[in-house]
């Protein structure tokens, strides 16, 4: 929790600094609280049978106009649950990996429609005994790419944001020799952009 608060303060600080050091643009800066679901899976080398699992994700973004028409930068701090599910003869087992994730996205808008993409870094928030028993040692940092699209619908003083995003894990999260595990996921969120 302390790590989440520290990273959130850093992202908000960057947003405030950008607002005070640059001339105010037409759309300025927007604060975007959001929440939704993550349909998570994992790519595991030489293993078959893994299935996707649905879990919770929520966070806070700061959309910062760059001065280039329709183009902005959006750093975020998100809590997101990743992992996978395996089916066996006795039912299924779900393995959860909870991260504080910090993407920095380039965003281009076409009216109310936008596309975004950029790198992300995730910090693992511990793991339970079930995960340790199956995965062994895992790395605490996960690097990835995010790409997606969404709608920004004017409502009141701000905009309702409907966002869909694919998360492609680039780093092997396993620290065991010969084991290769990479996170995957599709996140859908609903948020509200508050102009500052």
Structure write-up:
This protein is mostly beta strands and 196 residues long. It has a single domain (2-195), classed as Porin. It is built from two helices and nine strands, in the order αββββββαβββ. It has helices at residues 2-21, 129-135, and strands spanning 29-44, 50-51, 53-65, 71-88, 91-110, 113-124, 141-155, 158-169, 181-195. The protein has an eight-stranded antiparallel β-barrel. The radius of gyration is 18 Å and the shape is elongated. The model is unreliable at 18-26 (pLDDT under 50).
What is the typical, i.e. mean, pLDDT? 87
* Number of distinct helices: 2
Strand content: over 45%
What is the N-to-C order of secondary-structure elements (H for helix, E for strand)?
A: HEEEEEEHEEE
Rg (CA only)? 18 Å
User: What CATH first level would be assigned?
Assistant: Mainly Beta
Estimate the global geometry from the Cα principal axes.
elongated
Uncertain segments: 18-26
| Major sheet size, sense and barrel closure | 8 strands, antiparallel, barrel
Main sheet strand line-up: 1-3-4-5-6-7-8-9
CATH 2nd-level architecture: Beta Barrel
Helix fraction, binned, reads: 10-25%
User: How is the CATH topology named?
Assistant: Porin
Give me the secondary-structure topology.
Elements: H1 2-21, E1 29-44, E2 50-51, E3 53-65, E4 71-88, E5 91-110, E6 113-124, H2 129-135, E7 141-155, E8 158-169, E9 181-195
Antiparallel strand pairs: 1-3, 1-9, 2-4, 3-4, 4-5, 5-6, 6-7, 7-8, 8-9
Signal peptide: 1-18
Organism: Chryseobacterium pennae
Protein name: PorT family protein
């Amino acid at each position: 929790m302390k790590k989440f608060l520290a990273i959130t303060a850093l992202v908000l600080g960057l947003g405030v600094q950008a607002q005070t050091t640059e001339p105010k643009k037409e759309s300025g800066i927007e604060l975007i609280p959001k929440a939704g679901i993550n349909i998570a899976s994992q790519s595991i080398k030489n293993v078959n049978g893994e299935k996707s699992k649905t879990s919770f994700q929520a966070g806070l973004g700061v959309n910062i106009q760059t001065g280039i028409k329709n183009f902005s930068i959006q750093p975020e701090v998100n809590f997101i649950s990743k992992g996978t599910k395996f089916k066996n003869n006795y039912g299924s087992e779900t393995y959860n990996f909870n991260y504080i994730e910090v993407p920095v996205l380039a965003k281009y808008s076409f009216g109310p429609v936008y596309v975004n993409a950029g790198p992300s870094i995730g910090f693992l928030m511990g793991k339970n005994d079930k995960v340790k028993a199956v995965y062994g040692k895992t790395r605490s940092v996960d690097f990835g790419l995010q790409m997606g699209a969404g709608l920004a619908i004017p409502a009141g003083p701000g905009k309702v944001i409907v966002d869909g995003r694919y998360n492609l894990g680039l780093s092997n999260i396993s620290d065991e020799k010969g084991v290769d595990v990479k996170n995957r996921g599709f996140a859908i969120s609903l948020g509200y952009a508050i102009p500052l």
